[in-house]
Amino acid sequence: MSEAGAELASILAATLRLAAPLVLAALGGLFSERSGIIDIGLEGKMLGSAFAAAAAAAATGSAWAGLAAGVAAAMLLALLHAYAAVTQGGNQVVTGMAINILVAGLAPVLATAWFHLDGTTPMLPAAARFGALTLPASETMGALYRSVIGGHNGLLYAAALAVPAVALLLGRTRFGLRLRATGENPGAVETAGISVAAVRYRALLVTGLLCGLAGAYLSIAAGAGFTRMMTAGRGYLALAALIFGRWRPVPTALACLVFAFADATQARLQGVALPLLGVVPVELVSALPYALTVLLLAGFAGVARAPLALGLPYTRDR
Amino acid sequence: MSGASPLLRWAEPVLVPLVNMAAALLLSGAVVLAAGADPIAAMRVLLQGSLGDPASLGYTLYYATNFIFTGLAVALPFHAGLFNIGGEGQAYIGGLLASLVCLFLGPALGWAAVPLAVLAAAAGGALWALGPAWLRVTRGSHVVITTIMFNFIASAVMTFLIVNLLIAPGQSAPESVPFVPTAWMPSLGALGPSPLNLSFPLALLLAAAAWVLLWRMRAGFALRAAGANPEAARAAGISVARATLLALMLGGALAGLVAVNELMGSQHRLLLEFPAGYGFMGIAVALMGRNHPLGIVVASVFFGALYQGGTELSFDLPQVTRDIVVVIEGLAILFCGALENLFRRRIAALLDRQARA
């Protein structure tokens, strides 16, 4: 492979690695938002999972136990979100924020208490992580297959499979139909004899499951342990991708890939002078996803229509 | 209607936050217990570290100053029905404008540097809130989402500016050269060696001004009417657009003033990531203080004490890090905000029975 080709391959492979947690979290957010619940708590659910996964993997030495703990933690946080937002009819934005801040404090407190390492978990050995997989027939296929698509951990492939799975679930199943209807017109759903609360609880549990996978990806697959604030705003970036993808699975995943590509190239552009552009201010590149999302929301780049009932607590008429 | 009796009107807004905070503190105590430490001892360290001597009290009020600014920055828009999560970014851009005045005009301005830099901080915050406010008014964009996005944009812009342009020459730490001493916010030396400065009385003054605006002025009435029922406000001839712009820009200006306390009052230079979560803390403060300026001042002193006391925790109780303060912050938002109805109905019913008896 030529030097430029190798460079491109490594940027593309990095793009996939950076996109995987975004895709999982954004698809998670898709479930809660399409059911009518604003989810700015993706960050906290991911962070909670990242901590629980790393802590359980460190304690048991098993990556699978870590994954189970991570998913369970994120689903518990999702249940708390559902209890406050659905059962108590509380403000959904406030609930999401509470989860983000609570977990940002709780994870390092527990990490310090359990592992005496000032807010982190111990470095995980290879056996307690999801390592790189070698895809079948790697020897015979081309470089693209070997070094871009191949050689990632299992959770990255799970993220890739989640996209068609979510698209099918949302577009082709009864649960998906009810979910979409609940986000648009909960009154009509209730009239049809379906409980809006039950649909929203289920939607948030799926959100928890997917955020759990995203958090575990960070701490026990891509990384080797939990560190303070290791989600670093990815939950908010996933929310931006969800809006940018207009609350639909495939465009949302594509938005994650675009954001991840910008991130992957930015790291390589540091101090490099490009033809025509000159030296790119790399710090500003990281603002692009957010600026683009604002422009889209403002209707300057197509129309982004949120689910109609998004953010409105549903109370049954008596 | 028992709600009209004077006892109930006062008991409910005082009792409900107290019960909510008690629940938050009890759960935090359980976390401390789970971490293998004694919650009572932890509380004693927090109190002693925050109020035990004059300098600690000075630090407590210094942090409280930030929280009054960011709490009001959440509360004013809230009264207009808008949720401002953009305090972080607004404080950051306020810090940029204030620092530009201090760094480049400070030497020439003499005594005028401080008032001008204070105005610049407010203007910077208001300017950064103008974006989401304008998009709300003209395009109907969701303020929660746009203010979150503006936080990240501010962070990227400021990193770019500080790392590339404003950094002190020949230095690797991402911070500017020090401001000239004439551009420092005068210290309040009465409370021993602490960074407490003139920003604290300024914050109290602005809390009082916020009360006057909200409940004694026409513009404040319009703002609250727009928040309570935009349709009715419109029908009564109130401009909801003007109320939205006013509420968010005043909120932004208040958040911008964090820079006055933090940069002009204490650090005396511009540094990377100086808003450090103060903007988010404003949400907890506003919710605990029920969006009332007096409540916000009380809640700010409470969180200021926790914040200052938290720095002492790691010395005395190595099992508990100062992150426990963030846990309390999160639980306060949960109980005072998301779960505000959990105890309120019960307390209201209880008071109702008392009033009848």
Helix-strand category of chain B: mainly alpha
**Can you tell me the residue ranges of chain A where pLDDT is under 50 for at least 5 consecutive residues?**
none
Q: Terminal Cα separation of chain B, in Å?
A: 14 Å
Q: Helix count of chain B, per DSSP?
A: 15
- Proportion of residues in β-strands of chain A: under 5%
Helix content of chain A: 55-70%
Q: How many beta-strand runs of chain A?
A: 2
Mean pLDDT of chain B: 91
Instruction: State the domain count of chain A.
Output: 1
- The dominant shape of chain A is globular
Largest sheet of chain B: none
CATH top level class name of chain A: Mainly Alpha
| CATH architecture classification name of chain A | Orthogonal Bundle
What Rg of chain B do the Cα atoms give? 21 Å
- Using only C-alpha atoms, the radius of gyration of chain A works out to 20 Å
Describe the protein in words.
The complex is a heterodimer of chains A (318) and B (357). Chain A is mainly alpha-helical. Chain A has a single domain (3-130, 141-297), classed as ABC transporter involved in vitamin B12 uptake, BtuC. Helices cover 68% and strands 1% of the residues of chain A. Chain A has 13 helices and two strands; from the N terminus they run αααααααααααββαα. In chain A, α1 crosses α6 (154-172), α1 (3-34) packs across α10 and α2 packs across α10. Chain A starts with a helix and ends in a 21-residue tail after the last helix. By secondary structure, chain B is mostly helical. In chain B, 76% of the residues lie in helices and 0% in strands. Chain B is globular and about 70 Å long. The model of chain B has no long low-confidence stretch (mean pLDDT 91). Chain B contains 15 helices and no strands. The interface between A and B is large, with 47 and 51 residues.
